[in-house]
Amino acid sequence: MASQPLPSTLKVWQAWPGRHTFCCDGRVMVGPDFGVTVFAATLTTGTCVTFWVFVCTSLPVPAFVVGAVLFLMTMGFLVLTATTDPGIVPSNRGMEQAEIDACAQAQRTVEINGVTIQLKWCRTCHIFRPPRAAHCSECNVCVERFDHHCPWMGQCIGRRNYRFFLGFVNSCCLLCSYTLGLTCVFIYRVATMDGVKHGDFFSHAMARAPAGVAIVAFCALILLCVGPLACYHYSLVCSNKTTSEEIKELYTQSNPFDRGVCGNCNEACCVAIEAPRLQPRALVTEPLETGREGLIDASLRDANAGFTSTSESYDGSPDGLEACSPEPDEERDDAPARHAFTRVVPSESKGIN
């Protein structure tokens, strides 16, 4: 059954073809696995509350303060990672089939630090992906500098939220190490005060401080998982690679994005986060008869269609590709200029709240 045309006042987030969920009129975006994120946050909060109630009450006040600061850091980075646009590249799923077939046959390359890289055509989003971008089947979108899809964060980890993910991993390791260490000290003090011998230590701890034993077991398990993950991402940051690139072994000889250890760390952690290409609160400007998916893509149509074979230079910056101009259509002098992706005008500029 054909879909009814939607009103032109519809906003992008209301017709979003991906699997994300939008809140607060498109101001907040979460991934399809947000329920897992809530579970992880609840588990972390429950563990910390247990630690504060059963362990910190017998320790100096600074022990509680430090633990609270680490907890707030962990939860803050978790929320930022889960709700930040990872670098979604707007799709163009409203293209005509003839244009799709033409683009799928075309070749488009960019040159980065003397290395020619062929851009991949996404058959789902109908765009040429920028360098290092990939399509996430879980979220059904293309993401710039795609690292991986993290179910615990509920969405993809990409260019715009990778540093928040690093912050979460680091703060989680610190929180678990701190909680584990103080809980072990607490259990040891209880056993020493009761005059327990080493042979009866575990059974006494289970009897006198079962909550402490549970905290130790949980924190040790998390550290065994998150600790190696943190070390792995440290190596990725230093070599300027993503998890996806490392798994696929894309740069076995040389990495065109490598800027040296200091430059790579600066790029990952210190460079200003660029504005999102996706504008969820922008108005969809051209209603189509193709339903919600065609409607949202109509507003991006002139930006994401048709490419001819060409070779361009790319400076490695996120906006470098967007600045490149494709070769004009030789058969159509009036063909509009098109780029791999673009922005749509935010609704605020049109007076829409």
From TrEMBL:
Positions of the Palmitoyltransferase DHHC domain: 117-248
Renumbered residue ranges of the record's region Disordered: 307-353
Molecular function GO labels: protein-cysteine S-palmitoyltransferase activity
Chief location bin: membrane
Membrane-traversing stretches: 34-55, 61-83, 164-191, 211-232
Pfam name, any one: DHHC
Keywords, ordered alphabetically: Acyltransferase, Lipoprotein, Membrane, Palmitate, Transferase, Transmembrane, Transmembrane helix
InterPro entries registered for this protein in UniProt: Palmitoyltrfase_DHHC, PFA4/ZDH16/20/ERF2-like
Superkingdom classification of source: Eukaryota
Membrane topology category: Multi-pass membrane protein
GO biological process, one term: protein targeting to membrane
Catalytic activity reported: L-cysteinyl-[protein] + hexadecanoyl-CoA = S-hexadecanoyl-L-cysteinyl-[protein] + CoA
GO CC terms, sorted: endoplasmic reticulum; Golgi apparatus
Subcellular location: Endomembrane system
EC number: 2.3.1.225
UniProt remark on domains: The DHHC domain is required for palmitoyltransferase activity.
Stated family: Belongs to the DHHC palmitoyltransferase family.
Name of protein: Palmitoyltransferase
